Amino acid sequence: MAVLDMRDVSLTYHPAEGPVPAVRGVNLSVNAGEVVGVAGESGCGKSTLISTVLRLYPKSATVDGEVLIDGENVFDMKWNRMRAVRWGEAAVVFQGALHSLNPIQRIGKQLVEPILVHDKGATEASAMKKVQGLLEQVGLPARHANAYPHQLSGGQKQRIMIALALTCDPKVLLCDEPTTALDVMVQAQILDLLKSIAVERSMGMLIISHDLSVLSTNCDRIAIMYAGQVVEQGPALDLFQHPAHPYTRALMGAFPTIGDGESRYAPSGLPGDPPFPGDLPSGCSFHPRCPIATDECTTAHVVLEPVAPGRDAACIHVNQGVGAP
Amino acid sequence: MSSAAESVEEAAETVVEVDDLTVTFEGREGGTARAVDGVNLAMRKGEIIAMVGESGCGKTTLARTILGLEKPAAGRVLSHGEPLQYGGRALKAYRKNIQLVLQDPTGSLNPRHSVYEAVAEGPRTHGMDDETGRVSRALSMAGLRPPERFYLRYPHELSGGQRQRVVIAGALALDPDVIIADEPVSSLDASVRGEILALMLKLREDLGLTLLVVTHDLGLAWNIADRIVVMYLGRVVEQGPTEEVLNNPQHPYTRALLSVVPEMHGTEQIVLTGETPDPTKIPNGCRFHPRCQEVRNGVAEKAGVLEACTSISPAILSAQIPVGAAELGHDAACHLVTPPPTA
Predict the structure, then answer these.
(1) Residue B238: CATH number of its domain
(2) Over 50: is that where the pLDDT of B1 sits?
(3) For chain A, what is the domain count?
(4) A160/A138 Cα distance (integer angstroms)
(5) Under an 8 A CB cutoff, do A258 and B261 touch?
(6) Minimal Cα distance from A214: which residue of B?
(7) What's the sign of the alpha-carbon dihedral A307, A268, B239, B10?
(8) Which among A41, A153, A270 is the nearest to B275, CB-wise?
(9) Is 0.90 exceeded by the ipTM?
């Protein structure tokens, strides 16, 4: 069953220059024990999407649709309930986590704090015991509770950030670029860890990244976002091996297959920049950069439609069978 | 030796050479960190080299030493065969010819300087003539066309890819021979990444630039590099032509790095435990042995080299023979590849 269910979620920012629809009608669900990845370029709305789950967006922003955590709509929650849900029901591993730890406080103290705030029955001693167990679960020796952040490496700090998010046993874990600043080998270690935590704890996990290749190995399903909308989604490996949407194809092409002669001395990219959400192109938002765009794309209303079992794409050409997997 | 020297001249001129280089720092908790610990490297005109390794492997220190920003504890940096002079004027002239492009273009640009100011800064510092012409040509070569349209824009008005192009234009404005790029695309979006890599290939083609790209990204190496140098804990552990190293990796560390490239579906992942050790405490024997999968899974023991792995350091790899020469080497510093003298 879905522990996180986003139904037709939209979010619009309202700066002085006029409304900016950053997320437009996203449907996405995450089941218990499942890892779902969201990939897209900067400005595609993926971080804004995560902010809707715990209502971490600015007060001036307007939202629409429903975000259900375990069946309960976040947008309807009273303030007290919202505070309990944050960390207790859903927690975030933030981007740039390596700088989020307090440099002058021992790791253990920082991890104990949310437990004491959220669980009125907890004592310092019981909370510390739990923290030591969590450290071991994220692959660190329990004695690291006595360490200061500067004594740890980047990979170890990222493990601490994951332990911190797990302190109140949330049902949903949201990870914003969890491996961006890390080395490849450490990146692989962290992604393995996240996957095993999701399975062991039967948690729903949503990972967002600008790097599609990071998501391919350890996610069950992947959604691709462009200009505030999901343009393609499906099982990770399937989507990775047979991308349907021209945007997904371009993203995939950016990471060559080593050993493939065609990509040798031939890096592939996608010309142009993503549109500013406050000034979107008509029709399909991707059409100005799309290699297969036709006149029809400048006016067409594109929606996600099934292209294969479990697979959806928002492209009139794919849905008409052109370039389908 | 004389025949090797001849073939160097035939194949390509060596622009920058690093000769048995060691760079040390005082460790945080005492001791000496050997960040670069015996490296040989020759960069030839028009060559693109990818230097690959994890953080702490010494790749950034090596790049900084080549730029003259760090002084070696032992060994030398040579430019066109001449040892690098660390005096003011000579060093300034050298640095004009060898430019650095950093990972994060937002961090390398002053937010209050216009694009014109950013690109003109180098030529001004070096007192070069025809400033406007230089800025215009550099922007245009970096793919920002027409250049005049970008003169008065500020970094925040540009996309990530455009910012990185401005940084590259700033380097090009000095007519360098060599550009060292430290993770030039790792902070950029996937769609922009290919564009910047294509630009690097084009600059090599049009200007004969020599590029040393410091990266952890083996896909990048496959996309643009002629040759790969893999570093681990201050040493080169494997080097050779890109196709050779990536299609037929010899060193266990290279194989592990390659196995965790997310695109390599179907190959079994070798996820090494732990992280690169502290360079103040370099392990005895082969510096990779405490993390080596071949030591852990018994392959080294079966091959009869386990004792060597833990006690004898593999020989330092020598600088490679020229590009274009048929015998361009592919070698690895591993007892399993080259058995130690005692075995």
Answers:
(1) 3.40.50.300
(2) no
(3) 2
(4) 8
(5) yes
(6) B262
(7) positive
(8) A153
(9) no
